[in-house]
Amino acid sequence: MFILFRSSFPSSLTLIHCNHPAPASTSSCTTEFLHRAKQPPDGAPPGSLHITTAPTATQPFRVLTVPANQITSDNQPTVVSIVSWRRESAMEPTCAARAMEWSIQLEMGLRSAKPGAPVKAILEMEPRLLQWSREPESGVAPCAMFGLVPGEDRIFANAILLRLADAFSGGDIETRLSVVRVFLSVQKHRDKEKKKQGKGLLSEGRVANHLELLRRVKSVFDSGDLESKALTLVLFGCWADFVKDNAQIRYLIFSSLVSAHDCEVRASLYAAGCLCEISDDFASISVEMLFNIMNSSSVSLPVKLAAARVLAKCKSSYSVAHNAYKTGMELVLNSSDEDFVVAMLYSLSKLACILIPFTSYQVDFLLLFLNREKTSHVKETALRCLHFLFRRGLCEHSDNSGLIRGLFSVMEEPGISLAMQYTALRVLHKVLLSIPPTSLHVELHEFVRLQTVIEDTSQYPAWRKSCLAICILADLCCRTKDRAEIDNVFCCSSLPSRVISLIKDHIKLLPLLEGCQNDLKICQELQALLKILLTVVESHPSLGSLVLDNIKEVIEYLVTVASTNCAVQSTLVAVNFKGEKQNSFILKLLRKIYRFLVTCLENLYVVGAINTEVFSKVNILAEIVCQCSLIDCYTYTLYHLLLHNQPIYDGLVHENDGTHPASCLIKCTTFVNKVMTGTNGWTAYKVGAHAACQGEWLLATIIFRTLVEKVKSDSCCSWLKALFHYSNSEEKLQLLRQPKQGTTSMELLESIKFPLTRDYKDDTSPRLARNINDCNYYDQLTLSHVEVCSSLKILEASVTSSQAFCLQRWFLSLRARVLENLVGLVKALREVSLNVDLNLNQVEIECSDKLQFMKSYQDIAQVSLQLFRLAEEFDLLRASFIGMDSESSSVLAAHGLSCSVLAFATAFGVSNIDQHSKRIFIGDKASCNKQALTIQNLRRLFWCVDHGTRASFSILLNYFDLNENYLSPQSSYGTCSIGYKDREVLNVCSYAVSGAVSLLEKIASQFTKNALSLASNTLIKWMHIPFRIPKYFFRVRPFIGSELFLHNEDSGNGVDMSVSQGSHITLNMCLKLKNVPPNLLVKSTKCYCILHCSTSFFIPCGQTLGHSQSIYDAWKDDIIVELNQKLVCHVMDGVAGKRRLDMHSRGHGNGKAVETFMDFRLNEKGQGFSHCSLDVSNFPLGSYRIKWHSCLVDSQDSYWSLLPLNSGPVFFVTKPRVG
Length: 1219
Fold this sequence. Notes:
- Helix content is 54%, strand content 9%.
- It contains 45 helices and 18 strands.
- The strands form three sheets. A seven-stranded antiparallel β-sheet has the order 6-1-2-3-4-5-7, with no helix packed on it. The protein has a seven-stranded mixed β-sheet with strand order 13-11-16-17-8-10-14. Strands 9-18-15-12 form a four-stranded mixed β-sheet, with no helix packed on it.
- Belongs to the Integrator subunit 7 family.
- It holds the Pfam family INTS7_N.
- It comes from Sphenostylis stenocarpa.
């Protein structure tokens, strides 16, 4: 039951929730303080109130709707029913904010008489203290936002630690064990905290009353039994940071090292090891005592082994580590105990990593333990230690030949286990990678014995040792500079060819028919071998054809396994899918090979090695797969589109060839129409999605249109309808690209009505199929734009939150705006072309025609500006979805670059044409904005064209009076990475840049005509780019975004923020990441945020305030691109050292707009805190919204944009208080 009070202040209400039927018992009531009555949400009863509750440290904002007839006059309680109760997102409370709650819960648990309750309460503190130890200390912002008094967290942390110490001193053995377990868990993460430069909860600076803590625990050591003493010593080790300078505790630890009881000695060894890592003088004394312990005949072996492990921790300084290493070496040489020697080898190897000059000596020392006289346990330990040394990349061994011979001797020993052979191979691989390529020729003869190892591994084709041996041989041939020498050493015509053949033979030896229990292992083995093959292709691209020949043999083998009647060549109509379940494993392998082929072709394209021979090889192997009688629909489509995809093989086939993509597309469409009735909907959907990703829009349209008629779910139907409309839109554009039957390239060229000169005729694409001045051409573009808008409208109608279909709606919106500008550009160019023709023919132009002529120029300039902005927005889209696959990123980069090149071609011509005198002018003030736009596009294109085209940029640089430093990339995320499937975009870029350079050589009378020709021909070429949809488009899961919560001194809830006119507003902020998956590979190092406010962001009375907008699409805000650009520059300047990023406030503005930058260190919950001040002293009275944007910089220094998931808050500028 709810009771609502309305006080005298109009916007203040109180809601009491009672567990009883009547409010008689106030002890069982929970009070909520409500703030600022608001407009009711959609669907609320007329006259109802929309109310936001105040947040607490553990309770987020909640929005309630109360009917108006249930609210009485002031101070009169009334029972109300809640129409709706919507929880809004809120900050996660920090450990400091929950410290008081945890302290009370611990106290209640310790005082409980229920059996097991004290131990349970203590163990509940383990994850809490561990999380608290990883969090940074609470600063001003989190304390203010959670209502904490500065230093309050330290008080409650100290109270918790003292309560645990009291429980340890006064509890039984089970209680003491639980307390030790809690602190051991925190201690385990101390090294990680050091690497992050963080201060843990148990650091000396954060434990205020550590002397009292030690006093209470020491009493147990003084009066307790042997087990209690051991547990006390373990606690001293966990508290090493504030124990290291306490003389009494140090004496206790040293004295316990010489105890007669093994239990006490081992506990003291643990404590000594913790102190040795951080205290030089303690470690120096400990080394001597450890030597005495390990050298004594009266000490048991377990104690000696524990002491050997502690010796590796004596590394607080170089001198201490050196002394420990010499001591350990002496002990090993004088010991014959195998277990002790094994423990010491590990410790010495760890110390050698600290003592870099001793690593080579340690390698030689470990080689002594690889001879045949040593036991397998010792040899395996020596191999593991060698791998440890070389894995860290710090080992530079002078005698690599001796080491390699030693490793081969181990592998060739009779009776050696496969595990030890694998370990020896791992070491050999690390040794190979540590040798510089320039010095590798010295060691070549030692690796000849690797061939024998590979031959032996053929008995175990599915075992990882065989794959590693081939990998070593592949790395050897890829790293060796002198290829002739390596061929002579290995007695073969070509070692890379030999490696390729070995991989092929090894794949064919994989046990494919042994059962599903080994399927995962075989898939991993195949993937590893294909990865090695890619390495060989990258280093030897001339062998691409040979690689495809060997892959063909592998595919033939797999097809033979999958089909018992492989000799019968199945026709397209006779394809059968009944064996899909039985051959699902073979199909999985074929799909892995397909992904290899895509990557291989990408690599060959990068180095320019794709030719007709490569095409013919892919043709053959794809046909082998497609003709298999047991292949499934999806696998067939993969290989069929790989074979016939237009962007891949453009220019490598002739129009009259039977394998032309147009004819093959018809076959593929017939095939899919046939299998739509014989396969399930999910398989058909995958085929359609893959077709869309490959740019085969006719195929995708057919599939999605058929699925719309079959699906029953409303949500699925909306999704498929959106896909159908978008595919249909791209299909209309694709049809414009198809050549007319019987039309030659020259006839197509002559059909273009734009004024062309010989400079451009030679470069015109032979595939142009329509007249751009034709009305049908314009109508098709318009229809395509309408279809995209329909797709977007369908998705918008099904959206229930800002995160639903965010990428999909954003992408469709961008594509719709691109087509809208394209339609406008075609129309404007047609008008300009007509007027230019009349002017060249000296036809008198009426005044109205002149006005239309000038308006068309303005329209072209506006389109150029819009296209440039769309290019930046495509880049922002690409950077806003963390974890996007590289292919999808490449597709979006191609979309952005295509907008930029079209913007450049149009802006370059328009910015250099005087609309009145039709002459060239340079540096005219009237065109500086258009020239600035041209330069920005030029900057983007420079890093995308080939090196030959870049040479032309020097002419353009001189024209715009710029130096080459200006063309440096602005940001890492904006760098284009265009794949071979989208290389048509790069061709258009090269054409536009070369055409612009040619324009500069024209005289003024010819400039206008040729400038229009450049823009028109670039548009025509642009229209024939086979655009694709990113694969990430079909991922509809929530994306990683951020929420921002702001509070100021006059607000405790983040809703009502106010500042007196003429003053700065001080803000405390919390940035919170949302939807972060646990397995995310991108690791955040720092987040940055920009706040921006302007007098133009004035909020009229009655609009929604604060953070409470149910659906907020940040990408629809026009200012997001500008904010992101400023944030990119801020981050890049910080990387370049041009400014200090740790300064919280850096305001800019002239009184009309202000902004500031902040940085955040995120905790484990993805939250970071900061504070800043905005200078709004010149803002008039009223309400203003703060707009914001944030970004993330990962461990690889990559920039990722974080889309805001809530709108910026609103603050009030009020009249100054009088008196």
